[in-house]
Structures
1.
Amino acid sequence: FVNRNQENVGATAAEYFLSRGYRNFAFVGTPLIKAAEWCERRLDGFRSRLKKEGLDSTAFNASTREVSSDFDMESTELTEWLKSLPPQTALYAAWDRRALQVMGLCLDAGISVPGSIYILGTDNDEVLCESFSPSLSSISLDGRNAGILCAQLLDAHMQKRKVEPLVDLAFPRVVTRQSTDEMQVPDR
């Protein structure tokens, strides 16, 4: 059994933002009313890490299933929610495509990225992350090393050696690009 520890991915996002001095936090997950389990687990890890520092975050949820299934309607609600966030909010999006949707809405609404909102995605899809201006910071999940570990487990299993389940394939590291590249200092 091989699985990625999604809580670890979310905690990595929180740790990154904390290390850069942010104090306002937000999360945007899947566009569905009931998010996918992996997305909920990333949110749980994000919130859990922030809670250890006595901090909280807000998460976007569409008002109805109908709104969540229609991007035009959802984007209206999401834009209003983005406008309501305090200045210098660190926003973690569950994956890169969603982060770029959020960034596009911010730019269309005149919300500066970075500046007012700092956006971090997940997957580090280099083509997507570099195709936008500003470029998108993202958590790289190191698929190469995860693949090597999976192959080693399979090889051991095929040779009838005892194989312990591997639960955490996340080797997350943040690739900083322009969307978060501004250190926050609490004392002006």
2.
Amino acid sequence: MFEDIPEEQVRLAEVNILRELPQSELEYLARRCPLLHLAKEETLTLGEYQRGVLFLLSGRVRVHEPTFGKRELTFSVLEGATVVGQPGSKPRPPRVLRVQALEASVLRVVGWEDFEALVLRNPEVGLKIIGLFGERLEEYEGRLSDLIRKEVPARLAGLLLRLSEREDAMVGCGDRRIAARYTHWQLAGMVGSNREAVTRALGVLRRAGAVETRNRRIYITDADTLEDFAEMGR
């Protein structure tokens, strides 16, 4: 899976926490840190890289915890260029977290020592990663709260609002498009349900005029109605 491909193809400089770094730092990381090339549907176990950081340079991946039966917990669906997983200097308790490529993806593996040295030389990188993981933690806490207090339509409405705000893709007539394509199965993993329940919930939101689906993408057509659904159960 490791490949030596030209640096200009992997967009290391575009990773959200590495922007504005000196070229010398980017070149150093490129020399020191190997590339990981995942084909579509290929999966790796995140624990193999727990003493370090994975940068998603291009493509799209899903971070999830496999379970038995129809349900599966999806923590995030990420698109380049960003950080995958959570950096750490020590091995963590056994836990099977997997990264699945939803399309051909390229990652760079940065060992903990190299990452720590990078932050010591460039403290702004440390501040950016704290901010990034703070945002993700807030999102996860909100999803956990919804899982306890809300039914599937309300949980799905809240998720779609968060995705639309994060991906920020406006189209004509004031509609907001969720840029990435999500299957019903992937959405189910993100709201703690199953595919059938999410399909029914999406139908409820569609009939209420809150969302539409076009060419396998979800469009928010009435944000106020979607927010009303998201508030249900509070």
3.
Amino acid sequence: TMGFTPAEKPFEFARGVRVVPLTMIEFGSAMRTYPIIFTNLETPTPLAVVGLLDDVNLFVDEQGHWDQFAYVPTYLRCHPFTLAKEAGGQLAMVLDRDAASVSEEPEYPFFANGEPSEHTRTMMQICTEFEGERQRTVEYCKKLVDLELLAVMQAQHTPEGATEAQPLSDYVAIDAAKLDALPADTIYELHKTGFLSASYLHLYSLENWRHLMARRVSQGIAG
């Protein structure tokens, strides 16, 4: 019987990622720790930045555990499950059979008496809620594009002993001046949909670039 057994190193699968997809509802939790950026100007998707310059996730320790004081994005908490659209538009639950947590002798079987087990139903609920929030996030991102609020920015840092800042990363973010310059009725519309508060949470999160660099230095990663 195939099922789920908690892995000894639960987030080892995410050790080599630098960014993780986010939904809009997660901004309030994620902005405390990560810079929140967007993938591009044309079809943007929000991302939490968890690593810099190289493929090292700064929030996964040697034991494969996520930093206990940092928010874990829902996208990662759904693992090894995800939802995918079938040809007819129906959503199907997809399983990563190669995941370390998937076992032939599981602690939590996927099925019990021919029906999804309690654990499986819980994971299905998490994935379904994530998909719903993802759709709302798509609407939010379309609005940002329609209003031409996004721009390419550059994060910088000043290495120890240096006098001038150096480029750290180019990224896509909301142009705060363009947001502030919007007509009052547009601002009110964004407020009613929750898009305005999400936008400011995103802008606040950009303070975390320097915290991310400091974390990288504290972990002894050169460069």
